[in-house]
Amino acid sequence: MKRIGRRGFLSGLGAGGFYSLAVRADAAEGGAPAPEAAAETATAPWHAAMEPHMAVLTLECDLLVAGGGMAGVCAALAAARNGAKVVLAQDRSRLGGNASSEVRMHIVGADSHGGRPGWREGGIIEELRLENAMRNPHGAWELWDLMLYDKVVSEPNITLLLDTAVFRAEMTDGRIASVWARSDKTEQFFHVRASHYADCTGDCRLGLEAGAAFRTGHEARAEFGETLAPETAGPETLGSSILFTSKHYGKPIPFTPPAWARKVTKEQLEFRSVGSWEYGYWWIEWGGEKDAIRDNALIRKELLAIVLGVWDYIKNSGNHPESAEWGMDWIGMIPGKRSSRRLEGPVMLSQRDLQGEAFDFQDAVAIGGWPFDDHPSGGFDAPREKPARQVKIPDVYNIPLRALFSKNVPNLFMAGRNISASHVAFTSTRVMATCAVIGQAAGTAAAYCGREGMDPAAVATDNTRMLALQQLLLRDDQSIRNRRNEDPADLARAAKASASGSVEGSDPAHVLSGETRDIPGQWRNRWGGPMADGSAWLELRWDTPQRIAEIQITFDSGFQRELTLSEHPGVKKRVIAGGQPEVVKSYRLEYQAAPDTGWMPIARVDDNHQRLRRHRFDAVDAAAVRITITATHGAEEARVYEVRCYA
Predict the structure, then answer these.
(1) Are 87 and 219 in contact (CB under 8 A)?
(2) Which long-range contacts (CB under 8 A, 24 or more apart) does 135-138 make?
(3) What's the confidence (pLDDT) of residue 300?
(4) How do beta strands 637-646 and 536-555 pair?
């Protein structure tokens, strides 16, 4: 059999030079050094008989991530950055799922629409939001897609398989032993062997093939004691939506609908506002009474008929004459799916968990906070019902690790809208910023499990290991409520902090508090240094010199403000394109080998736009380290939440 090396494998995938948004010209699809493609394997009986022209390639890795939406992207990046070799299989030609240019739903989370101000999610999703704001200030959806692609292929531990769908799992003793995926565009099967697997498909396709327990529809009120649940259980759930965008062209733009478009009347829109039409309408929803998976083609057809019917009403009913010079310039062809299957874990989140009526979870790994947001299953065909029932949640809530892995397939994680939750809880956890932080939690946990040679159930019930996992997540800027930096390896915790000056209430010692966010308007957990003379400095000093090889800084990035890619005019007004004003732009790092000696340079940065920055360097013995800040992206003071130091 012919062996296929890495270069040949990537060539076969169509990899080549890529000039990325991060100004890297050397990234090839799949990264390097990712899992090697093994030889063409012996064909399985079903393959030989049914599809003999498909080549078969075997991949070995630590974690297979099925699904490249926001949960899958964050899971893959988190696992890879924590040392795992990852294969990410996405059934589309681009990453992002419902947030991609193919669907264009903007990312919302704990801080949005009645959520908790100041609780914008940290971690990888914050990194992606900040990167997009800086590199894509004009808000092109395709450049958002490209940025996600760049992040993934620039990560050396990830092999990316686009246009590749998982379709089969092979089991041994109740565990997933290997997974099969197919790419019809390249006429290849991929046979992937891993120690752990993550279902980020939304529809639970990997879990389905593995025989994992799952649910559909909605539960009865009595099952979890949920006041927001209906009296009886049923198959109905939330529908799907298709968005459109439109522009003002400065001249009349006529519109003639196709014969199959719906005829929409004013009465049907009693509870559905058409006040602006730049960004379509989430309430063009249909299919909650159908099978979201098997009936997807029917759902798309009906949604397109409704979208064009609504646009026909706007353009031709006479009720909106101001639309005369507006023209539709894009319409989605992939339904943005809200719900289908949910996998069952050892814990199934319920309304009471999210409302804080139960205990906090010892194995907390992520936060949520979007309101309970249920929709009538009839969607647009239920015009006498409001299109959504939103119930605000009192505070952000923690999501446990035990809701992120299967209760009966021990090496299967799940992340995204398919986690272990009742239908009521799902109406909050389903939004994409929450899916993203769940993905980061699952990916980090998978890397940790692989390194320790354990399954997630053993980690989740071990207090010592859970503390270690939580500290690992916090170090990567993941937000977990009521958890703070207690990392014993962080040398900064033993230092004393001082500064050139401080905004009232912003003691320099706050950067050692272990907390990395504040309630808007408060300075309880960050330092603010006036920059009246053009600079400000923050210093950490130890009683005895410390051996240091890494300094990590968490800046303020404006968590009190919404930050997402959207065509909605109200959202766009709240979003600042470019570098966020609070973020430190230019700074230098120095160390002092002993008291009263000169300052020696470590690093200088002149173009930062990120919240979390890590500097690794040849180890030095430092009695003190100093951060001198010389510019921000607009704020009058330098703002720092946390400084960490490691050997």
Answers:
(1) no
(2) 135/21, 136/21, 136/565, 137/577, 137/578, 138/577
(3) 98
(4) antiparallel
Q: Please choose, from the candidates 394, 388, 483, 403, the residue with its C-alpha nearest in 3D space to the C-alpha of residue 445.
A: 403
Sketch the domain layout of the chain as residue ranges: 1-218+341-451, 240-331, 491-646
Counts for the chain of helices (H) and strands (E), in that order: 14, 27
* Residue 116 confidence (pLDDT): 77
What is the distance between the alpha carbons of residues 499 and 457, in angstroms, rounded to a whole number? Answer: 45
Model confidence over 70-86: pLDDT tens digits? 999 999 999 999 999 99
The CATH-assigned architecture of domain 491-646 is Sandwich (2.60)
Residue type, 389: R
Instruction: Note whether 600 and 621 are within 8 A (CB).
Output: no
Six-digit token string for 437: 């932080």
CB 599 within 8 Å of CB 606: no
**Position 281: which residue type?**
Y
Sign of the alpha-carbon dihedral angle for 479, 482, 487, 490: positive
Q: What is the pLDDT of residue 275?
A: 86
What angle do helix axes 432-452 and 70-81 make, rounded to 10 degrees? Answer: 30
Residue 505 DSSP class: T
pLDDT-flagged residues of the chain (< 70) = 1-46, 48, 114-115, 358
Q: How far apart are the C-alpha atoms of 81 and 63, rounded to whole Å?
A: 12
DSSP 35-74: PPEEEEPPPPHHHHHH-TTSEEEEEE-SEEEE--BHHHHH
| Residue pair 587/639 in contact by the 8 Å Cβ criterion | no
DSSP code of residue 521 = T
Output the pTM of the full model. Answer: 0.93
Report d(CA 178, CA 451) in Å as an integer. 19
Q: Measured between alpha carbons, how far is 214 from 32 in angstroms, rounded to an integer?
A: 36
In this prediction, residue 96 carries a pLDDT of: 98
**Structure confidence at residue 50 (pLDDT):** 84
The confidence score (pLDDT) of residue 117 equals 82
Summarize pLDDT for 442-480 with one digit per residue, the tens: 999 999 999 999 999 999 999 999 999 999 999 999 999
Rounded to the nearest 10 degrees, how much is the dihedral formed by the CA atoms of 376, 381, 382, 386? 70
3-state secondary structure of 559: coil
Going by C-beta distance under 8 Å and a sequence separation of 6 or more, which residues neighbour residue 547?
A: 619, 620, 621, 647
**Alpha carbon separation from 312 to 103, 127, 241, 455 (Å, rounded):** 21, 40, 18, 54
Amino acid making up residue 516:
T
Q: How far apart are CA 512 and CA 485, in angstroms?
A: 9
pLDDT at 617: 98
Distance CA 334, CA 94 (A): 13
H helix or E strand, kind and range, residue 631: strand 612-632
- 1-218+341-451: CATH homologous superfamily? FAD/NAD(P)-binding domain (3.50.50.60)
Using DSSP bridges, classify how beta strands 584-592 and 599-605 pair: parallel, antiparallel or unpaired. Answer: antiparallel
